[in-house]
Design brief:
Blueprint lengths: L1 H36 L2 H5 L1 H4 L4 H5 L4 H16 L2 H10 L6 H29 L2 H14 L1 H10 L3 H16 L8 H4 L10 H7 L7 E4 L3 E4 H12 L9 H17 L12 H17 L20
Helix pairs in contact: 1-5, 6-15, 7-14, 9-10, 12-13
Length: about 300
């Protein structure tokens, strides 16, 4: 997941500096013993040997300074900067956090006692080929609202690509049960929804909000959600029993795909899911073009160890 890679990538320079500090400090403690064994000829060359010591590179690190460094390390690795970056990119803030946390708690309770047990049972009953077929079927249906938003965003090439996928998988792929288009050079593209279309049209995303039963949205994506619903083919199925059953199956299937990701979640789950959602929205709105902010090192700068 990008967030994880992004957050972990920010830790790498600090981990490297920390390891060098500890290693250099350890070598500095051993220097008196080494110096006492050096000959007079070697001692004459001592300034050259000590040009790159810990004192020259980092200064003499005291216990208080090390504590300060560790605090900075913890802050850099576990602060909320990822949310600030995603929020600034999408124009969304968490001004409704108190309400959102209450709704998040409600949704998590509902998931714990209802959706997750259904998802676990579904994975135990359905063989992997069946799960793959279900996933392909619903992914194929989602191509239709995707094409609509491609056109509304003036992405004609992408609209042709997604239309070709839908036609090929709906016919040769047996109503979408098999992803034939992928093997024909038409891989599945990133999802498009009306919330992304509004963002392309310049509509601000508004605050982050957690909706009961439905989960996280930005205000703009929440307002746009009904357009996504009515543009989905299941909306026009005459039999409500068939339509509701298909929607329920899709929800259970989508929840089952998240079971493996639960091990990656840690810390405050509200913040974790909020950051993941906003970064995902940023990725989709910008068509995968996300600014690379790996540290503050410029192209011409180098680490001098």
């Amino acid at each position: 997941m990008r967030m994880f890679v992004k957050q972990k990538s920010k830790l790498l320079p600090l981990l490297l500096v920390l390891s060098l500090q500890v290693g250099c400090a350890s070598n500095a403690e051993k220097e008196p013993d080494l110096d006492s064994e050096l000959s007079s000829d070697t001692a004459a060359a001592e300034p050259l040997v000590h040009e790159n010591t810990a004192e020259d590179a980092f200064g003499d690190t005291s216990f208080e300074e090390q504590q300060s460094f560790d605090a900075d390390f913890d802050e850099a690795g576990f602060d909320d900067s990822s949310f600030e970056e995603a929020a600034s990119s999408t124009g969304s803030t968490d001004s409704l956090e108190s309400f959102n946390r209450a709704m998040f708690s409600f949704n998590m309770t509902l998931d714990r006692w209802f959706f997750r047990p259904l998802a676990v049972g579904y994975t135990k009953i359905a063989p992997q080929p069946v799960e793959t077929g279900v996933d392909n079927f619903f992914s194929n249906l989602r191509e239709i609202p995707k094409v609509l938003n491609d056109v509304l965003q003036w992405k004609w090439k992408q609209a042709g690509h997604d239309t070709g996928r839908f036609l090929l998988n709906s016919t040769v792929g047996v109503v979408g049960l098999f992803d034939v288009a992928k093997h024909a050079g038409l891989p599945e593209s990133d999802s498009e929804d009306f919330g992304q279309t509004l963002a392309v049209w310049g509509v601000p995303q508004g605050p982050y909000i957690v909706v009961p039963f439905l989960g996280p949205y930005t205000l703009a994506s929440g307002v746009a959600a009904p357009v996504d619903w009515v543009s989905h083919p299941l909306w026009y199925v005459d039999s409500k029993t068939v339509a509701y059953s298909a929607v329920a199956l899709e929800m259970v299937h989508l929840r089952s795909e998240l079971l493996a990701s639960e091990e990656l979640m840690s810390g405050d789950l509200y913040i974790f899911i909020r950051d993941a959602y906003l970064q995902r929205r940023e990725f989709l709105i910008n068509d995968g073009i996300v600014e690379d902010d790996f540290g503050d090192v410029g192209e011409d700068e180098e680490f001098d160890f």
